[in-house]
Specification:
Radius of gyration: 20 Å
Bound molecules: NADPH dihydro-nicotinamide-adenine-dinucleotide phosphate
CATH superfamily of the largest domain: Medium-chain alcohol dehydrogenases, catalytic domain
Helix content: 25-40%
CATH architecture of the largest domain: Alpha-Beta Complex
Distance between the termini: 19 Å
Strand content: 25-35%
Order of helices and strands: EEEHEEEEEHEHEHEHEHEHEHHEHE
CATH class of the largest domain: Alpha Beta
Largest sheet: 7 strands, mixed
Number of strands: 16
């Protein structure tokens, strides 16, 4: 029986609802793996879960990605070995823990050149970037993408992914310092949307044409401006709601603004299939190993101080990825 430190919460609320407790970790059943976790990712979705924006059954754990070492394997798990370094982005919500047992399908062998901290910083965020740039909509060299919150965790990976693909990424961010960081990571332009009208600026930068694709994780405050930044037939990918959920809207708006397309993807669908999940992780690790993606860890916290990590992420003072150390 392994004893683990684990962060749980039993009602939605502010960062104070999270508590650290000791739990016994179950031995892996068929198709499962147990991991001693060395570093854990903090993601904006953890805030949606904790605060109740996304519903959860209680009592609940928190967190969707981490990296560590395999300590036990259930029957039928063939792609992992005891003692192997691994990382995951998995739909089961319990990664804020020193040890855990979970389904092995989303657990991926971690190359020796990527540290546990780097892996924790990129698993959910990088798998998300992978599907946004490689799967959700076709993108070819020279296409223009508007990407909001470009200096955040997903954002800095996205800036680099776009540069590697020869795309023109127009970022937005909440300060001039964040814009400079996005540019240093490969954004072609970056608009400080707390001081400038981003739609107006996008139209200026694209000579009135608009962009091919918008990737919008900010939600309520940017949704309409994002639609107004697209070319006719453009693709709106709304994949998050840091400023609040997009309110219900009249789909006729898509026709009026130029036969636009709209999708609302989630990484959970992409990683649900074992083969696809492992392929996505390999693509992500190759991007890091080849130097195309540099991992930006902006903030490290002891797991016991997860509340501070949430406070900092919610108050928009972080850049790049935040991680917890168990
Ligand atoms: P970030 O590090 O990007 O943090 C969120 C950023 O959103 C902030 O830093 C801030 O940047 C911006 N923001 C804009 N308005 C607000 C607001 N009112 N309150 C708080 N932040 C605001 O987080 P992550 O990298 O973890 O995630 C980025 C986004 O991607 C999130 O919305 C997340 O939910 C989404 N996501 C979606 C997935 C999916 O599959 N659908 C999977 C993974 C992530 P600034 O100050 O520059 O505006």
């Amino acid at each position: 029986m392994t004893q683990a430190q684990i962060v749980t919460f039993s009602k939605a609320g502010g960062p104070e609802v999270m508590t650290l407790s000791e739990q016994t970790i179950t031995a892996p059943k068929s198709g499962q793996v147990s991991i001693k976790q060395e570093a854990i990712g903090v993601n904006y979705i953890d805030i949606y879960k904790r605060s109740g924006v996304y519903p959860t059954e209680f009592p609940a754990g928190l967190g969707f990605d981490a990296a560590g070492v395999v300590t036990a394997l259930g029957d039928g798990v063939q792609h992992l070995k005891l003692g192997e370094r691994v990382a995951y982005a998995a739909p089961s919500q319990e990664s804020y823990a020193s040890y855990r047992t979970l389904n092995a399908a989303q657990v991926c062998p971690l190359p020796a050149n990527i540290s546990f901290e780097q892996a924790a910083a990129i698993m959910l965020k990088g798998m998300t970037t992978q599907y946004l740039f490689e799967q959700t909509t076709p993108l070819k060299e020279g296409d223009t993408v508007l990407f909001h919150a470009a200096a955040g965790g997903v954002g800095l990976i996205a800036c680099q992914w776009a540069a590697a693909k020869g795309l023109t990424l127009i970022g937005t961010a909440g300060s001039d310092e964040k814009c400079a960081l996005a540019m240093a990571n490969g954004a072609s332009h970056c608009i400080n949307y707390s001081t400038e009208d981003f739609t107006k600026k996008v139209l200026e930068l694209t000579h009135g044409k608009g962009v091919d694709v918008v990737m919008d994780s900010v939600g309520a405050s940017t949704f309409e401006g994002s639609l107004n930044s697209l070319k006719p037939f453009g693709m709106m990918i709304t994949f998050g709601n840091a400023s609040g959920k997009v309110p219900p809207f009249d789909v006729g708006m898509l026709a009026a603004k130029g036969s636009l397309k709209l999708t609302r993807p989630t990484v959970a669908t992409y990683v649900a299939d074992f083969e696809m999940c492992q392929k996505m992780a390999k693509n992500l690790f190759d991007m890091v190993s080849s130097g195309k993606i540099k991992v930006n860890i902006g903030n490290r916290y002891p797991m016991a101080n997860a509340a501070q990590a949430h406070i900092d992420l919610e108050s928009r003072i972080t850049t790049g990825s935040s991680i917890l150390i168990p």
